[in-house]
Amino acid sequence: MQAAIGVGGPPATMEVTTTGIRMFARAVGYTDPIFYDEAAARAEGYRGLVAPPGFMGTAIHRPDGPTFEGMVSLEIPYRRILDGGTTYEFLEPIVAGDLLTSRSRITELH
Q: Where are the domains of the chain?
């Protein structure tokens, strides 16, 4: 498992849509109009409907494309595992219409 530390996974692209934003905001209980009303978001200075904290879009699925090709495969000898944390760096607010590309990388194992 130690050999996987520092190895990056393949890029994954997420699509941020108005429907996804509104559904997520409603599901987690956000009530700020910037998550529901584009005019309210623009009045607050945003480029469009704002994605709530924690919403990073929806994966773009292509039936003829790779799904998990290139992912690091771990032989984990334990019955129970837990993601001990994920770190994000936001350079600007995420809004409807954005396409986000990310890569995962294991930084440490305990």
A: 1-105
Q: What is the pTM of this model?
A: 0.74
| Structural element, H or E, at residue 13 | strand 12-15
Our measurement of the distance from residue 100's CA atom to the centroid of its chain's CA atoms, rounded to an integer in Å, reads 8
Distance of CA 56 to the CA centre of its chain: 3
Residue type for 80, please? R
Which residue stretches of the chain have pLDDT < 70?
Answer: 1, 65-74, 110
Q: Reduced to 3 states, what is the DSSP secondary structure of residue 58?
A: strand
Query: For the structural domain made of 1-105, what CATH number should be given?
Result: 3.10.129
Sheet holding 99-102, edge to edge: 58-59, 12-15, 99-102
